[in-house]
Amino acid sequence: MTGFLAAWLASFPGFMTPLLLASVGLILCERAGILNLGSEGLMAVGAMTGAVVALSGAGPWLALALGAFAGLAIAVPFILAVVVLRAPQIPAGLALVAIGLGASAAFGRAYAHKPFVGLRPLDLPEVLTGLPLIGRMLFAQDGMVYLSLIIALGAGTLLMRSNFGLRLRAVGEDPATADAAGVDVQVHQLIAVVAGCFLIALAGAYLSVGGSQIWTEGMVAGRGWIALALVVFARWSPARAVLGAILFGGAEAAIPRLQTLGLPVPVYFLSMTPYLLTIAVLVAFALLRRGGQGEPGFLGRAYIRQDR
Amino acid sequence: MLERVTLERRAGVGAALRASAYAGAIVVALILSLGVLLWAGVPTGALFQELVVQVFLAPAGLAQTVTMAIPMMLVGLSALLCLRMKFWNIGIEGQVLLGGIFATAVAIHDIGGPLRLWVMLLASGLGGALWIAAPLLLRVRLGVSEVIVTLLLSNIAFLLLQHLLFGAFRDPTFNFPSSSVFDSTERLAKLGFGSVHVGLFVALAAVAVIGFAIHRTPLGFAARFTGDNPVAARAQGFATVRVMALSILAGGAMAGLAGGLVVAGTEFRLTQQIGLHATFNGIVIAALARNEPLLVPLVSFLLAGLNVASASLKVFYSVSEGVVLVIQGIILLTLVSSQFFTTYRIALSRGGIAA
Hints:
The complex is a heterodimer.
Chain A: H1 2-31, H2 39-55, H3 60-84, H4 89-108, H5 126-129, H6 135-139, H7 143-161, H8 163-173, H9 175-180, H10 185-212, H11 223-233, H12 238-260, H13 267-287
Helix pairs in contact in A: 1-7, 1-10, 1-11, 1-12, 2-3, 2-4, 2-10, 2-11, 3-4, 3-10, 7-8, 7-12, 8-10, 11-12, 11-13, 12-13
Chain B: E1 5-9, H1 15-40, H2 46-57, H3 59-83, H4 92-108, H5 116-142, H6 146-165, H7 199-216, H8 218-228, H9 230-235, H10 240-267, H11 278-288, H12 296-317, H13 322-343, E2 344-348
Antiparallel strand pairs in B: 1-2
């Protein structure tokens, strides 16, 4: 049993990292008032590009970076549409999903099912990795796992503790007031969405470069949607997103392990837990009449100065 | 940024402007789509043959296109019934799956005797309506945003489908997860034109009924009023919540019915593939049809042709089916971007900073 527990604990950070990066990216967008439903497509582009770059012989960090930039590139029409043209964000986000999934499937076909060398666990001393139960969970992970935590906490600090973060949240909460106070609404939205899309695509690149080390079509497998749920679960806070990602990632990591044990577990019901938990959180907050807490007040709506 | 440019909301929008924005978006989308197809490796000379002749004119291709258009009409109706109420149903796919599951359950448990097919279709509509009832209730009673709840329920529906296909509904004689094949009494009759089945009339009847209801009945008037301006409608004494709920439940039922028609009309069993991109297709169809039910058959027919073409492009030119998804994404993005021109007027200020 301890062997099972240690193996599960060692594997879950790999599941946590993409969910954390994507949800922090989404939180940045949503805090600035932009609802970005396109995460699934952005992650697909990141995963495919990361794999293609890694297969060409480049190092894993370059593969991650180019994967993230490719996702950002494909998001440019979406970003312009929602920030500059004030297009309705929900259909624009769905269009981004379609373009991302379609483009990665079309472009990546020649690169599918080819294993490559991706991220390796950091080479830490045996004293640390050999600790019972938690040694490998804490110290035998690749660099991105630690970096994702730093990014999440950094984004949280930036958002909650800096003047820039205050302005950004003001834009998502009440753009008319922010505008009147001299905050440039569109510039703040642009910065937030560009950074957000970059992180979401980076999450996708980690799936192939850090996780599977092979690309197959459909490998994002709904994680973009789970990240959207995680944002709600974390009530739009990057710090709480760390806890949510540990919980959701831990559940995801447990499922294949329970299956290999041959236990008669209803795997598909287990897979539902992140979704059911998120709905439960939504209902609980609504029942406690605290529905507004955390949710940006102007999320998903278009602001023009004339409306002020 | 851009302080010299201010946007003003247009008070009223003329039909000419509306039409030209729409036409402009279609032209831009077509040009970009052609570029994508050529980039993907379709020879220029084959474009017309593959995208027009083979799928709309050649009998075999036309039959496939019509068959595919049947569920697409219903998911388009589903999307527009919800969109007219400003209810973002991002879980049409989940409602389609529930429709398929309910119809299959009726078939497997041999419910309904001689009325089996009717019971199956009724159950499929019920399944779809049931799956949208929860987000509707949460929205109306607790003010929970429907966007995330419909999305989550769609994912839950897919996991439920897999649970059934690997468990209770599984037919072990197949290597892939699938229910057993339906009896002949549980299949919709063919019309003698390829695999086109009587579901075509069901879908067209749904279009006619919903079009008539929206444009010619007091209920439809209340629905249009509620969708456009719920506050004013309530002030005028309309039962806005009831009207909204009815329209949205009907939307869920249409999606469920689409699932029912797919299992009873073309697949004859439940598989993992029945819900393919229904949410996205539905919203694209509703956007192209400008939420007008009577335009849904035409738009569905054209988009079905595009999807049928993708299969032969894959076989003959090894062009990935992903290309069609990209094209649909481009169409949707240009359409929603074009709303900029009908919603806002650009006012340039001369010098100084516009207030």
